[in-house]
Fold SDR family NAD(P)-dependent oxidoreductase.
Amino acid sequence: MNKIACITGASSGIGFATSKALADLGYQLILCGRRRERLEALQQSISLPSYILTFDVRNWSEVEQAFQSLPMEWKNIDLLINNAGNAHGLSPIQEGSLEDWDAMLHGNVNGLLYVSKMVIPEMIRREQGHIINISSIAGKQTYANGNVYCASKAAVEALSQGMRIDLNSFNIKVSNIAPGAVNTEFSAVRFKGDLPRAESVYQGFTPLDAADIASLIAYMVSCPAHVNLADVTILPSAQASATQIKKVL
Ligand code: 8X3
């Protein structure tokens, strides 16, 4: 029987590329996101069966209803990729907006918890499973104006460790991936559609792309059962830290 993977934030970027990579490995996919048309386009490009769940990770009742609506044959999730999340704004703490803070904390932290809460009980019952949380270099190193985004990703780092400890006795692997600069819609969302500013983030060096993270995930899930790549930081070769990138402009 094919394994089932559930990917949040599957409609774009790392989630989209990871869905494709996992389909290539033979996973049946539960594709989660807010943009149904994009998920349907992704579904059509995948040959194995997949199931679409449309919800906002920030809304507990939407998350609960979505997972409760899964048909029986889709309930045994083997692999959960907690990918949904974003940055909103890049401002000094004294200038940050409540709206941006709530979007990041509710999406990056609460959202990860809500989805995990719906998936973990079946993994515990079956005493098997793998959860991969997408964190960030920003969760390991706080940078100027990153304040709340960095805090949200530091929370993801802590939750990956906490989940690994609490789920250890149930044979559930928990892995954490901390990417550096990945050229996706990330900066366009952070800078609220200011595309020239977003593009400048990735100029002068070769950033990672979503497929690089998807390849890493494909490798991680293909490791033998006794191997867990527990915490992987993945950076472009030009990047040395959260803030140091060798650029040639
Ligand atoms: C994305 C990477 O360095 O822009 O999480 O925070 S960074």
